[in-house]
Amino acid sequence: MPAGRRPLALGGPRSQLAQQSVFVVPRCRLKKIEESKEKIRREIRESKAKMFTKFTNILQQAVEALAPSLPLQEDFVFHWKAITHYYIDTSDDKAPVTDTNIPSHLDQMLEILVQEEHERESGETGPCMEYLLHHKILETLYTLGKADCPPGMKQQVLIFYTKLLGRIKQPLLPHINVHRPVQKLIRLCGEVLAAPTENEEIQFLCIVCAKLKQDPYLVNFFLESKSRATGVANPQKTEVAISENTVVPADISSEMEQAQPPEANTSTGLYNATCRAVVSPLDSRSDLSEHSTDLSTSLNTMTLSLQTATANSSDLRQSQDYNLVNSLINLSKSPDGRIVVKASEGLMLLVSLPEPAAAKCLTDNTSLCQLLTERLGKLYRALPQSIDPMDIESLESVNWGLDSYSHKEDATAFPGKRALISFLSWLDYCDQLIKEAHKLTAVALARAIRERFFVPVMEPQLLQTSEIGILTSISLLNRTIRQITSSAMLRELVFFLLGDQRQSETVGENKHQLRYRLIEHCDHLSDEISIMTLRMFEHLLQKPNEHIIYSMVLRNLEERNYIENKPACQEDKDIVENGQIAGAVDLEEDPIFTDLSPDNRLLGSSWLTASPPPTPDHTKSDGKTEVHKIVNSFLCLVPDEAKSSYYVEGTGYDTYLRDAHRQFRDCCGNCMRWDWPSIPKPLEKCNLETPFFEGHFLKVLFDRMGRILDQPYDVNLQVTSVLSKLSLFPHPHLHEYLLDPYINLAPNCRSLFSVIVRVVGDLMLRIQRIPDFTPKLLLVRKRLLGFEPDGPIIDHMTLLEGVIVLEEFCKELAAIAFVKFHAATTP
């Protein structure tokens, strides 16, 4: 052993410490062991309590089955007293309601009420229902549900209310002791998103909405003043303290509870005291009888008549709350899609109610407008800028409520499809909501969408200069136009796009920037932007709104100053021999229209009349050109050497007649209520001295039509498609300007026919410089129709395709002219 070191004694401190660390358990560990033992004991007690509760329920049901049946009223009172005794006798405020007999007793009470109604005549109130009304059982249940004592009681109360309103056929909501607690319970719905009672809340709200849909006048009971909604007590009512021996009217106690700060609502002990104060007096038979007499008297004096409620609603219109709408709006923000759909359905039921007071309150005192517009803006901004415009166009129709898209299961998925479906789905909901809404509500909602979504969100995207951004925004606008069907929302969209001006346009006028920019895009350097914008206008023209066609075309034709007011000269008369163009076919005996049934005939207009026997004059005494001359003029515009349809079967003029008939019928259906004149405005009443300007839209279309031989095939198809849609409108001025080749145009004016004549003149000069023109033209037509496979590139391909489009367009215009004539002359 080294010097200076002493051996450690066996009984020294180090040895004692070692022994203690082996045999002594630390206190912290002992505490954990005790806690785990206590937890196990608690679980055992709870399991025993559950088993005992189930056993007592079974025993009670067996006793009820074997015991002689009591009168319904006594049985009803027994179950209600069993519920009230729970709050008097039970001190455990943490046990969930499912561990008690309360749900069973509530179910029995409901079954008794249903049975009582079935046993009585329709509309007669039985003693059990009288008991429920006079003793304010619904008020008491509301208080217990608000306190959620025991835990889960709110869910049971919601279920009871829902089943009571849904299964009882007699009208309950007119009773003050029903609609008042129902209104208070409505305020509790939607307070917390993703709450455990969310499903029961939406079921309850939807049954209330369904009842209001059946009897719309009842909605006046649910328009409450803001002073009551915020918990301010009525000064005429007496405030009393809640104690063990004091009867507290349920409405006052409920108002007092609602006026408490949120912190106070977290105290379970206070809730138990409140619950006992409400239910303990009901244990006494004498108190019940006396209370019943008092409530019966107050019921007669306090029940609001429908006339009074309706009259007062106009005075309180500016200070009313629509809590039913507010709760549905809150639930529509739930992360659960099923809850959102049900809340949306409830809102649609409420906006369709015919009560003006409710409609005014809904738009002025709720956040419905904000909900619609904010979500529209959020979903629109979430769309990726790189989304392909063709994907937007080709997406199948989207309906709200069916927004169940799975990216993994979709074989045609593309980037941004999920976001696009979400936007279009919500847009469709807004459109359907406005379509079903009361007129006041529809106008307000549509105006809000224009002011808060169209202008601040969509307009900057439509006015941008990036070609990719322009293409995407116009594609979305086109899809939006196709989605909208409600008249109020369509009107606001039209005013947003075209403005509300009704006076004639002037050259260089730019009063509405967005309108002017969109028309400019029809003649954009990018063919894709031009085609997309023209397609957008084509869809817009098919919408049933008179301001569209008036703003774009008709306002510039009102004065007919495109006509030179002088008789036709002899030189014009010599063009036609005996009223028939050489080589033209007589179409008035076309068999395709002779077999039309009366149901398929169109509504006639007097601005087209039967063609008289051919005469040397092109116009009759009323100034209208004979239809066969118009038809033949368009058919003979393209010279024979530039025609190729003769050589291909199934491409004749008659193929356009059926399409023209269907399209004209649809157009007349849209225009039926527009009160258009049947004949042109007399020239003596027109201001022919005013310089004529066809308007920016027609100017762009005519300019594009003039370049048909030099433009891509797809552009030409879209330009001619828009012009044919304009030609279908049954307005006398528009028909005259676009489809009458024989009007005397004023100096420096052009019409559709004159533009085509210039194109044909240019074509005749260019044909001479193209060798083998006719064989090449025929080959191009067969390739376009798919009759010939693609082969070597043909010279002058753009011109050849333009000639084919020009020939087909002239046949289409001829068919439209004939269909409009036939519709006007069919009895």
Automatic annotation (TrEMBL):
Domain annotation FHF complex subunit HOOK-interacting protein C-terminal: ranges:
694-786
- Enumerate the InterPro entries for this protein: FHIP (IPR019384), FHIP_C (IPR045669), FHIP_KELAA_motif (IPR045668)
What domain of life? Answer: Eukaryota
Q: Which family does it belong to?
A: Belongs to the FHIP family.
Entry protein name: FHF complex subunit HOOK-interacting protein C-terminal domain-containing protein
Which species is the source of this protein? Chiloscyllium punctatum (Brownbanded bambooshark)
**Top-level taxonomy:** Eukaryota, Metazoa, Chordata, Craniata, Vertebrata
